[in-house]
Amino acid sequence: MGVEAGPPPRARHGYRQQKYRNIVARPIAEASVKAMLARENALFTQRNPNSHSLSEKAARNWLHGVPMHWMVDWGTPFPLFIEKAQGVDLTDADGHGYIDFCLGDTGAMFGHSPKPVAETLAREAANGFTTMLPSPDAAVVGELLEDRFGLPFWQVTATASDANRAVLRWCRAITGRKKILVFNRCYHGAVDETYVTIDRGRPEADPALIGEPRDLSELTKVVEFNDVAALEAALAPRDVACVLAEPVMTNVGMVLPEDGFLEKLRILTEKAGTLLIMDETHCISSGPGGYSGEIGLKPDAMVMGKPIAGGIPAAVYGFSSDAAERIRKFLETRTPGHSGIGTTLSGSRIQLALMRSVLETYVTREAFAALIALAKKLEKGIADVIIKHGVDWHVVRVGARVEFMCCPTRPRNGGEAAKAIHGAIDEAVHHFLLNRGVVITPFHNMMLISPSTTEVHVQTLIDGLDRCVTELRS
Ligand SMILES: Cc1ncc(COP(=O)(O)O)c(C=O)c1O
Question: d(Cα 244, Cα 165) in Å, to the nearest integer?
Fold first, then answer.
């Protein structure tokens, strides 16, 4: 365990903040944002009569009007209905084409229906989807996971949320400790216990959480990312089973680890007998071993989901030899019965076949090199737009993932980031781009590069953003 030498994390974050220091950045006027939103919403409604009518029909049977409630959270007057997705091309119900930089919020990071994965799906569709027994692919995929992510022992789940829940259980079981620790404003999926914030000065369940009667702060400790002193103090009583963390916070804008923070996290957890879980579900954008792989961080457990089977529900979690040995020992003493870990459709032959295809084709150093080269161009292009217009924004990149935030300096932690997010500007920019055929991730300003993304796509986005900011300034 411990941290191997590697390039300092900052080297991978790309465009330096210093670039902006000598420009006088001015905020965008609120009135201008409001006016753009009104214009773009009217244009959206006018452009999309078929989506409009589909949304009215769907509302008769779907709670919230859509199969999953956050589909209406994009802020448009009604959701866009997508007929077809291929590579980075989306076609909506009115026949409009889009370049997709959202890519299913990472689920389609390797493109929509990527050819090798679609071919595997078509081939394997004839051979059965799920049997409750392993398929021959299991042996190969296990080896691939160890090779890519560095941990030897793995399990499959249907979603990254499931994987995180399972890992938390295992960590509690083998340490005999009840508490866990997360970073303020983290997101690890639908994992109730991680929804504890300190925004109002003390740990409390996120008021947004629905139907949760327990006082989650009893067993969840929460500190700010990059706060070594708070982390050390929280771990000192040696009652924390595990820390669950993304190496870069990616769900509240993007919050980078400061130099040495992750290394310190590794050292402090080890010292406190606390297991370290790295959730690489989004940070897989860093490279074929995730962010941990890029910096040589050795966690005790890792979670990886979303694109691991090309966007078909599948996720994995892995353990170090040491943690796996502790699990084996624990199982010798365990009471027989339902474990509370695992769901029927997990580890199915179709998941294994698709994961094999994704790991062999896309989770490779060569494949990532091309994505990262293009992501750098996007980052530079956005930085140039920010500088040209003197807006008080910044851009940040982690591998193939680029994010611009509408605040002048990088937030140091989740609390700062949550305060800095400017919902109205984000929405105005999203809608402007959407009406001009470019999709970026809703809720914040994330853009992913996939193997199907081209320089022309990237330039289209940069030009669109340039036009958008020009209009916002006028
Ligand atoms: C870092 C991280 N972990 C886990 C999840 C949960 O993934 P899923 O919704 O596929 O369960 C997410 C979802 O956005 C995530 O961002």
Answer: 10
DSSP symbol at 188:
-
CATH architecture of 9-113+365-473: Alpha-Beta Complex (3.90)
Confidence of residue 18 (pLDDT cuts 50, 70, 90): very low
Q: How confident is the model at residue 8 (pLDDT cuts 50, 70, 90)?
A: very low
Domain ranges of the chain: 9-113+365-473, 115-361
The model's pTM? 0.95
Ligand 1 geometric centre to CA of 161 (Å) = 6
Whether residue 298 contacts residue 1, with contact meaning beta carbons closer than 8 Å, is answered with: yes
Closest CA to 3 of 326, 232, 259: 259
- pLDDT tens figures, 205-239: 998 899 999 999 999 999 999 999 999 999 999 99
CB 163 within 8 A of CB 157: yes
What are the CA-CA distances from residue 196 to residues 76, 182, 212, 228, 316 (Å)? 29, 8, 12, 19, 24
Out of 188, 278, 302, 316, mutate this one to test ligand 1's pocket (max ligand atoms within 8 Å of CB): namely 188
Compute φ and ψ for 255, nearest 5 degrees. -120, 120
Does domain 115-361 fall under CATH 3.40.640.10? My reply is yes
From the CA of 182, how far away is ligand 1's center (Å)?
A: 15
Separation of CA 47 and ligand 1 centre (Å): 32
| Residue 238: burial class (beta carbons within 10 Å; 0-12, 13-18, 19+) | exposed
Which residues have any ligand 1 atom within 6 Å of their CB?
A: 105, 159-161, 164, 187-189, 246, 251, 279, 281-282, 305-306
List pLDDT tens digits, range 160-196.
999 999 999 999 999 999 999 999 999 999 999 999 9
Q: Confidence band (pLDDT; 50, 70, 90) for 474? A: confident
